[in-house]
Structures are given as structure tokens and as C-alpha cells.
Amino acid sequence: MRRFVGCFASVFLTAGLLCPHGAAACDRPGTPTDVTALVTQPNPPIISVSWTDTASETVFWDVEMTDETGQTAEALPAGAGRGDTGVGLRVSNSYTVPGGVTRCFRVKARTERGTQGCLSEKWSNRACATTVGSIRGGAGLCLDADAAAQTTNGGKVQVWDCNDTTQQHWNVDNKTLRSGAGKCLDVDAATQTANGAKVQVWDCNGSQQQKWTVQNGTIRSGAGKCLDVDAATQRQNGAKVQVWDCNGTLQQTWNQTP
Questions:
Q1: Nearest Cα to Cα of residue 77 among 44, 116, 115, 34
Q2: CB atoms within 10 A of CB 155
Q3: Which segments in the chain show pLDDT lower than 70?
Q4: How far apart are CA 25 and CA 5, in angstroms?
Q5: Number of domains in the chain
Q6: What is the pTM of this model?
Q7: Contacts of 128 (CB under 8 A, 6+ apart)
Q8: How many other C-beta atoms are found inside a 10 Å radius of the C-beta of residue 106?
Q9: CA atoms of 114 and 107, how far apart (whole Å)
Q10: 3-state secondary structure string, 1-17?
């Protein structure tokens, strides 16, 4: 009760701090906004989480980490951080997580370190990222960026015997598939709606040809095609990866593995 009264009293003593831009009325210290989660390192997997501060006073952070179902994945300490000040300030922290998992994050601000002080009335938006590791095709070979060209725009994407190398590490975040070398899985822009269009790696740019939905054993492109291995050679190292009309065949079946 003492802590509640102190926080309640400070509401009236610090009226100028109550409602910074974007905060709910009387929600001291305000709710963080624009939370994003991005896999920044494949091995060991690291997810960088960033958000925007809406408070006019120095605040600390309660960060919640869950799996995709909302179940707690790891209990993080309350009121963490060095103490940040500044409306509009982008704040970030990084978390090491297992491979082959989805981790989701949301944030509250707190006026004191630890479990004391006033706390945001509401959680921020939730942001998720998935650390995939390898992606195995229906024929048992893994999605692979050609080793010699994996850092080059237009580098070939193929399937190859699974070997846990950098060129077979893929992470899912914000509907992109990011390679171990930091490039994004990309469909040739000019032909992305055509069957047989080339799949390659390219600098990540947020375009439609780099948007992918991983669901129920398929990987669907932003243009609505499915990631597909050439049927005649799908069991051979170096087989072409392309996009094709979704048809539920073996060459369009993909499984994420740690």
C-alpha cells in the first residue's frame, strides 16, 4: 500500500510528467512504443529488441519474453537498464536465445530500478523474431546460399546436404528470411509473379520480394508464390530453388530445425 500511495501522490506533484506525447492520460511514466525484434547474430542466436521511450523522466524497463503462444520463455529482471531519459529516444537491448525458436517481447517503463516506482499502465506492442538455424526441404536437403557468393547480391540459393554451415543458417524476423551472412532471401523483382522465378540473396531492403510467410510446412512469398525446389533435381546438391504456384508437393515442403 505504501508504494501505491507514493506513486499516486507523485501523480499530483509531477503533473507535467503525466502525459508525454503518445502516453495514455494519467499513465505515468507512459507506455513505450514501436517495439521491434530482429535476429542480429545466427550462432549463437541473438535477438536485438528496440523501442521508443515516451517518458519525460528517467525510466528503467520491464521486458517480457514469451514464446509465440504467450507463455513465459525466460523471466527477465524488473526495472532493468542504466536509466534512460528522453521522449523519442530509441532504446535497445540484446538477448541470447536458443536456435529454432520464436521469442516475443513487450515492454513497460518504470520510474525506479527493480520492482519499485510507478509502472506503465499498459504493455507496449508485442514484437517477435524466430531463430531458425537450418531449413530442410521435403527431400531432406537444406536451403543453402552458395558459399562462394553468399555475401554478393544475386548470390545463388540452392539445396545442399545439411551441414550446419553459415550458408545454411536462416533467421525469420518481420517476415524476412535473413541468411547467416546477413543477406535476405529475395525473389528476382522483375519475375516474382512467374513460375520458375529466381530466388537469390540480396541486401535486406523491406521490399515485397523479400517478404516470406512461414506456415504449415510452406514458405510463401510476398507475391503469393511458394518456395520450390526443381522437382527433377530436388535430391541433388545444387538443385535450383525458385518460386512456383503453391501445390502442396514435396518440393514445396520445408521444416525449420535448430
A1: 115
A2: 20
A3: 1-27, 42-43, 258
A4: 18
A5: 2
A6: 0.63
A7: 37, 68, 102, 103, 104, 105, 173
A8: 22
A9: 14
A10: CHHHHHHHHHHHHCHHH
52 touches 21 (CB < 8 A) = no
What contacts 224, CB < 8 A, 6 or more positions away?
A: 193, 246
Give the pLDDT confidence of 176-225 residue by residue, as tens digits: 999 989 999 999 999 999 999 999 999 999 999 999 998 889 999 999 99
User: What's residue 27's pLDDT?
Assistant: 66
In 3-state terms, what secondary structure has residue 231?
A: helix
pLDDT score, position 100: 78
- Quote the CA–CA distance of 243 and 218 in Å, as a whole number: 11
Rounded to whole angstroms, how far apart are CA atoms 201 and 123?
A: 36
Among 125, 140, 155, the domain boundary falls at 125
Q: Would you state the pLDDT for residue 20? A: 39
Residue 216 is predicted with a pLDDT of 86
Residue with cell 520463455: 73
CB atoms within 10 A of CB 237: 11
Can you tell me the distance from the alpha carbon of 206 to that of 15, in angstroms, rounded to the nearest whole number? 41
Same domain, 192 and 98: no
The whole domain housing 26 covers 2-125
User: How far, CA to CA in Å, does 10 sit from each of 78, 111, 118, 218, 236?
Assistant: 21, 11, 9, 53, 69
* Domain at 106, CATH number: 2.60.40.10
Q: Give the per-residue pLDDT at 154.
A: 97
Q: Give the amino acid at 55.
A: A
C-alpha cell belonging to residue 119 = 509502472
